[in-house]
Automatic annotation (TrEMBL):
Residues 26-69 form the PAS domain. Its EC number is 2.7.13.3. It is an enzyme of class 2 (transferase). The lineage of its organism: Bacteria, Bacillati, Actinomycetota, Actinomycetes, Kitasatosporales. GO terms for biological process: regulation of DNA-templated transcription. This is histidine kinase. One of its GO terms (cellular component) is plasma membrane.
Length: 371
């Protein structure tokens, strides 16, 4: 017996299990509604009852258009428009679309028309129902991303436009020092736009699973030292940083540019949002996945106020900001995506000094020909 079909004996039971694995329609995550050759509902699973807010007892045995009164977004009755039993004999169903239930609630609906042979009469209409909450969350996320990008781009582009227009119009009126200052500002703002575009590309690749890694041997301790030197060149005091490396470290094969991106983000966050000494611990650690292989763990902690307990679960989500000191709120989301693309893990906790502590572990991930 097919999934979702009640037997002809008992009067319109909820659903019957299929032969073999014994799948009950009530175990399905989506709503399932099945109508027989006469157009009456013979299956109405628990998810369908929840999504439509219609008790199963009120749906079973009733005509499909009565048990599931759907309308399109223009208010037209959907079953009258599609006419599954009397429409085109070559039609096999309906693709997923947004429709309305009584009260204006939206639901995602797709349908399949089951025939014994390609152009024969419809023997069953199988309808799948899904709520729109997940799609709405995705749409809101996309809208937030667009709003964030627009906001972050507006300021540097306004600055670039303003300074270049001023220089073009009044070049002779400015001294060389004034010209240099304005051009340096334009250069810094152009760099900010470039970084934002790079972040958007990274997010797109992470979300689609297309983040490419070019693995090669990486000296993680040397990479940390380079970032610290860059921060000190930018004005940070040398005693702001403390590096503790415990070895010997296992060989690490990773994408050096992506690892630099992770280290740069974590160290800049610790400097910008934290206080006191920034401590970087590098040590061997069991690789993620419960195997016997060793990996490399890097811990970055500061002595600032830390991250509130209630925010710990949102740190690696899009648009999370630890303070009001600028930033897009995309950096840690990208960091998590890069670490996980390497097969690693990253966590956040409260550090020994009271501040935030970020710890990521990367497996060795050596190429197969070296094993």
């Amino acid at each position: 017996m097919a999934v979702g079909m009640s037997s002809p004996g008992p009067a319109h039971t909820a659903a019957a299990r299929v032969d073999g694995p014994g799948i009950d329609p009530d175990d399905l995550p989506d709503g399932l509604v099945v109508a027989d050759e006469s157009g009456r509902v013979v299956c109405f699973n628990a998810a369908a009852a929840r999504i439509t807010a219609t008790p199963r007892s009120q749906a079973l045995g009733r005509p499909l258009e009565v048990a599931l009164p759907l309308e399109d977004l223009k208010g037209k009755r959907w079953w009258a428009l599609t006419d599954p039993y009397g429409g085109l004999a070559t039609r096999g169903g309906q693709p997923e679309r947004n429709l309305l239930l009584p009260g204006g609630r939206e639901v995602l609906v797709s349908a399949r028309y089951v025939r014994e042979h390609p152009t024969g009469p419809v023997r069953r209409v199988v309808v799948s129902l899904r709520g729109t909450e997940a799609r709405r969350r995705t749409e809101r996320s996309h809208a937030e991303l667009i709003a964030t990008v627009a906001h972050e781009l507006r300021s540097p582009l306004t600055s670039v436009k303003g300074f270049t227009a001023t220089l073009l119009a009044k070049w002779e009126r400015f001294t060389d020092d004034q010209k240099r200052l304005m051009l340096e500002t334009v250069d810094a703002d152009a760099g900010r736009v470039t970084r934002l575009i790079a972040e958007l590309l990274d997010i797109s690749r992470i979300d689609s699973g297309r983040l490419e890694l070019r693995r090669q041997p990486v000296d993680i301790a040397a990479a940390v030292a380079r970032h610290i030197q860059a921060l000190m060149a930018g004005g940070q005091a040398p005693d702001r940083f403390r590096v503790r490396a415990r070895g010997p470290l296992p060989d690490l094969w990773a994408d050096p540019d992506k690892i630099d991106q992770v280290l740069g983000n974590l160290l800049e966050n610790a400097v910008r949002h934290g206080e006191g000494t920034v401590t970087i611990d590098i040590a061997p650690a069991p690789a993620p996945g419960g195997c016997d292989e060793m990996g490399t763990a890097v811990t970055v902690s500061d002595e600032g106020p830390g991250i509130p307990e209630e925010s710990m679960g949102r740190v690696f989500t899009r648009f999370w900001r630890g303070s009001k000191r600028g930033g897009t709120g995309l950096g840690l989301y990208i960091v998590k995506g890069i670490v996980e693309a390497h097969g690693g893990t990253i966590t956040v906790d409260r550090g020994p000094g009271g501040g935030a502590e970020f710890r990521f572990i990367l497996p060795v991930s050596a190429p197969a020909y070296l094993n």
